[in-house]
Amino acid sequence: MSQFSFFTFDSMLLVRDAQGRYLPASVDEILNVARQVIDQKYQRGALFTAPELVKDYLRTKLVGFEHEVFAALFLDSQHRLLEYVELFRGTIDQASVYPREVVKEALRVNAAAVIFSHNHPSGNPEPSQADKVLTQRLKEALALVEVRALDHIIVGGEDTVSFAEQGLL
């Protein structure tokens, strides 16, 4: 599907196929369009200072995956978006995350701060002990290169849990 080759008719989202016909969109196509819209709305330089704005953005980016995706919002010193990066992809209940690679990416984009996020395909956004340990390791690794870890948000279906709001970061 090419970017924004859709329209709504009778409250139904339609997408254009390779032959130019409009057909009802699948759930995956709808989620893909939502991700394209959010990317268009929040481009480099978008300000991410309100927790609800960050949660809404990440919910849109990570909802609907049947596997875990670990991502990061890399921000400048004013908490403006430098880049959203999906760093690691896992299975239905885990993703291997390597702090070295997160630090490399933060340095590549010259980030001053980062917000981590990942989804729980089960729909339960509660952090596991492994999530807590990983977040602490990432925070410590990034502190060595003076990049602040602002939050880690877990997306489970339509619900989110913020480590910062829970006092876990």
Automatic annotation (TrEMBL):
MPN domain location is: 47-169
The record, for SUPFAM superfamilies, names: JAB1/MPN domain
Q: Which InterPro entries match?
A: MPN, RadC_JAB, UPF0758, UPF0758_CS
Q: What CDD domains does this protein map onto?
A: MPN_DUF2466 (cd08071)
Q: Which UniProt keywords apply?
A: Hydrolase, Metal-binding, Metalloprotease, Protease, Zinc
GO MF terms held by the record: metal ion binding; metallopeptidase activity
Give the domain of life: Bacteria
Q: Which Gene3D superfamilies match?
A: Cytidine Deaminase, domain 2 (3.40.140.10)
Any one Pfam family match given in the protein's UniProt record, by short name: RadC
Q: Which GO terms describe its biological process?
A: proteolysis
- Protein known as: DNA repair protein RadC
